[in-house]
Amino acid sequence: MTDAPKVSIVMRTKDRPDFLRRALRSISSQMFSAWEAVVVNDGGNPDTVDQIVQELAADVRTRLTVRHHDTSRGRWQSANAGVLATSAPFLVLHDDDDTWDPGFLEAAVEYLEEHHDRDAVVSRIRVLWEQRTPTGFETARTEIFQPQLHDLLLSDALLFNRYVPIGFVYRRALHEELGLYRDTLPVIGDWEFNLRVLTRGPIEFLGDRPLVNWHQREGDNGSDGNSVIEARGDHARYDALLRDEQLRTYVGENGLGLVLYLTKFIDQRFVEVENGIRTEIARSSLWRRLATRLRRR
To answer: What residues make up the domain containing 181?
Structure first.
């Protein structure tokens, strides 16, 4: 390429050659070509990664570099290593088991170049539930992730992560202002960063048609596992720890007054709802008994 790349792609991998091949095909099949990519091999077999890269066409290899970690440093240290090894104004993390439609990068870059006031854009996300077969992977079913959302809002993301890295293209300048990914978090580093981004304002979707695929595999573990499924215990733990950290920060700055009030208020509302449900169940049971007696007569 003679022109400087417009978007940097960061891919983390470790001992998942089948996924890595598929993910690199996803990148090389993009209609948009002004990209650079770095593959961060986080403690996996370096020879395998280098061999897979060598299988790519020469013009693709010139835009791709590989960083090998002798030992695993974790998801978010690897992500930060990739961010720091690239330079394009736009960034995206491409997980090694996910894929893009060929037009994704072109549409995302075009959006960000036209909307200078926007920090990022997110594609609608297609979830592909797949299973490994002797010949590769087969899709069992598909669904759209969070189809009810019109925009990506902080208020929604406070409950759980509303988008995943494969569909999120953002300005590198966000790292200059907000910092890198929290590499002390073994999981949920993307959600924590997304919360920081969303405090700046909402993010629009890149149209209604999903241009990215978030691949999921139920029951798989080890190198084939998805962290949101295989490491759900870690996700729950660090979700709670992050919330507690932010709560303590808030209390340190504002005192316990509001949170004490809200804790009791929310508890009372739950009690009222529970009592209402019990009352309705009791009424339904009473009507059923009365109807039974009337039929017997």
So the answer is: 7-249
